């Protein structure tokens, strides 16, 4: 077997196996009663429901992962890439259009394959536990909007990458890096005003006790906010959330209407203080710097591997091309992506502890953050006792119990 093919199939199968193993271990890692810290937030019925939700989510993700992995391996072994390439070349399009058609067809196929699973997750799985509020109309419109955005934003970026690798010689990876970084900064900059409002309505938070408390908290933390907005999260789910968007002075905080409905003023202030903690502790800049470094490394490695004849032989390709090399490199990168995402999750979990500590100190009220976490856990039926392998693989936030224990240290 071709060495590249062995690495690719091996790592696809390996990452599938790790995922399924974490689901099996996770399903057995649930004690009959909630941890004592949650005794006041989870009654017996809620706790039983949270265990059932976690188990059903694990089953669903095992089925989805299995289908995805089987589909991609079957496509590779059946010579799907070469068949697609031959069919698109037969259209006799200009070189750039041929490359875009190849990548576009694969992207479309992958999203069509994922569609039934997304629909099932939204309308059957989430509905069964009372979370889903998405209408069929919103679901369909969301997909269409995403598709249009992918084409008009992703299309030109891919086109530039293809052109650079085709014509710019050994410096191509540097040009791709520069363009990709500028593109992602630009996207972050325009997201709050141009992209996010396509999916949600942002309403400035009305004047009142909550707004004044949030403004006081930001001022005391020495943090400039360009706006406090309420986002209609209830259009899709009953689960609450909050996040910052934008860069520099365009930074704004978005609070889900579902969060405002269920949390008290002091709890929402604690959530804001936590988000400010991420900015004040430099997490946002660190994340940005890591993203920039990673993008550079990916393009550099891509430039080394993407035209290797062995890589094309692995997929049974008759002809070498930049566009197929790009796709094959992404597959070859699977094991490295897995390692990078585990590392990124570990860093993110460390950041969450730091932001919690910042919120506890800034508000002088760790109890508010603790009760916010408890309410959020109960209303979204969070798995209170995830298996360490699940946390290691998938958790960008520490389990709520660990956060509450760390916060409790500030109370005494
Ligand atoms: Zn956070």
TrEMBL record:
Enzyme superclass (EC): hydrolase
Alphabetized InterPro entries for the sequence: CAXX_Prtase_1 (IPR027057), Peptidase_M48 (IPR001915), Peptidase_M48_N (IPR032456)
Keywords in alphabetical order: Endoplasmic reticulum, Hydrolase, Membrane, Metal-binding, Metalloprotease, Protease, Transmembrane, Transmembrane helix, Zinc
Top-level taxon of the source organism: Bacteria
Keyword Transmembrane helix tagged: yes
Cofactor(s) needed by this chain: Zn(2+)
Name assigned to this protein: Ste24 endopeptidase
Cofactor note as given: Binds 1 zinc ion per subunit.
Membrane-protein topology: Multi-pass membrane protein
Family, as annotated: Belongs to the peptidase M48 family.
Gene Ontology biological-process entries: CAAX-box protein processing
Catalytic residues, chain numbering: 275, 356 (proton donor)
Provenance organism: Pseudodesulfovibrio aespoeensis (strain ATCC 700646 / DSM 10631 / Aspo-2)
Main localization of the protein described in the UniProt heading: endoplasmic reticulum
CAAX prenyl protease 1 N-terminal domain residues: 34-201
């Amino acid at each position: 077997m071709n060495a590249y093919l062995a690495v690719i199939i091996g790592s696809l199968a390996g990452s599938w196996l790790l995922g399924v193993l974490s689901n099996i271990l996770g399903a057995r890692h649930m004690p009959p009663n909630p941890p004592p810290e949650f005794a006041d937030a989870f009654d017996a019925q809620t706790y039983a429901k949270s265990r059932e939700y976690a188990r059903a989510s694990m089953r669903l993700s095992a089925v989805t992962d299995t289908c995805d992995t089987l589909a991609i391996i079957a496509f590779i072994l059946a010579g799907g890439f070469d068949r697609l390439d031959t069919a698109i070349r037969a259209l006799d399009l200009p070189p750039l259009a041929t490359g875009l058609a190849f990548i576009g067809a694969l992207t479309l196929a992958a999203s069509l394959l994922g569609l039934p699973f997304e629909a099932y997750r939204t309308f059957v799985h989430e509905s069964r536990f009372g979370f889903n509020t998405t209408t069929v109309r919103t679901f369909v419109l969301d997909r269409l909007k995403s598709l249009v955005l992918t084409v008009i934003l992703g299309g030109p970026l891919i086109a530039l990458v293809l052109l650079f690798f085709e014509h710019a010689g050994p410096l191509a990876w540097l040009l791709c890096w520069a363009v990709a970084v500028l593109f992602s900064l630009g996207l972050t900059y325009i997201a709050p005003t141009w992209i996010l409002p396509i999916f949600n309505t942002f309403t400035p938070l009305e004047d009142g006790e909550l707004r004044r408390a949030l403004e006081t908290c930001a001022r005391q933390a020495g943090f400039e906010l360009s706006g406090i907005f309420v986002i209609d999260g209830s259009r899709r789910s009953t689960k609450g959330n909050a996040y910052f968007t934008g860069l520099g002075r365009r930074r704004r905080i978005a609070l889900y209407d579902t969060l405002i409905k269920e949390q008290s003023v002091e709890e929402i202030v604690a959530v804001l203080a936590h988000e400010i903690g991420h900015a004040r502790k430099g997490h946002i800049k660190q994340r940005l710097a890591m993203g920039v470094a990673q993008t550079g490394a990916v393009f550099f490695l891509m430039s080394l591997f993407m035209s290797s004849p062995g890589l094309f032989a692995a997929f049974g390709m008759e002809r070498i091309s930049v566009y197929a090399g790009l796709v094959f490199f992404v597959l070859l990168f699977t094991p490295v992506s897995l390692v990078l995402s585990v590392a990124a999750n570990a860093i993110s979990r460390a950041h969450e502890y730091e932001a919690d500590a910042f919120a506890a100190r800034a508000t002088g009220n760790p109890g508010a953050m603790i009760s916010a976490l408890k309410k959020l856990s109960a209303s979204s039926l969070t798995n209170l006792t995830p298996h360490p392998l699940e946390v290691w693989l998938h958790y960008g936030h520490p389990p709520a119990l660990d956060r509450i224990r760390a916060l409790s240290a500030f109370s005494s």
